[in-house]
């Protein structure tokens, strides 16, 4: 099994608390850097839909 590679959000800059994403065989993993033990797993399609919804409400 390969190691999960977490990538910090570009919006996080140098902040200590930031959102991190990882690719995991057809799924996207999401966590906050200050609570790395809590991970949300979703599909790329559902993540795109969530982000589109959040942007539409902004």
Brief synopsis:
This protein has one helix spanning 44-57, and strands at 7-8, 19-24, 27-32, 35-42. The chain is an alpha+beta fold and 58 residues long.
Walk me through the structure.
With about 60 residues, this protein is an alpha+beta fold. The protein is about 25% helix and about 40% strand. The protein has 1 helix and 4 strands, in the order ββββα. The protein has one helix at about 45-55; strands spanning about 5-10, 20-25, 25-30, 35-40. The protein has a 4-stranded antiparallel sheet with strand order 1-2-3-4. The longest helix is centred in the C-terminal third of the chain and has 14 residues, at about 45-55. It is globular and about 35 Å long. The N and C termini lie far apart (about 40 Å).
Give the number of DSSP strands: 4
**Strand and helix order:** EEEEH
Major sheet: size, sense and barrel closure? 4 strands, antiparallel
Strand order of the largest sheet: 1-2-3-4
Instruction: Please state the structural category.
Output: alpha+beta
Radius of gyration: 12 Å
Number of helices: 1
**Shape call:** globular
- The share of residues in extended strands comes to 35-45%
Helix percent reads 10-25%
Output mean pLDDT: 87
Q: Give the N-terminus to C-terminus distance in angstroms.
A: 39 Å
Which blocks of ≥5 consecutive residues have pLDDT under 50?
A: none
């Amino acid at each position: 099994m390969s190691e999960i590679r977490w990538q910090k959000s570009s919006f996080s800059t140098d902040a200590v608390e930031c959102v991190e994403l990882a690719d995991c065989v057809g799924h996207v993993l999401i966590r906050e850097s200050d609570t790395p033990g809590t991970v949300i797993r979703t599909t790329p399609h559902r993540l795109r839909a969530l982000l589109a919804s959040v942007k539409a409400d902004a």
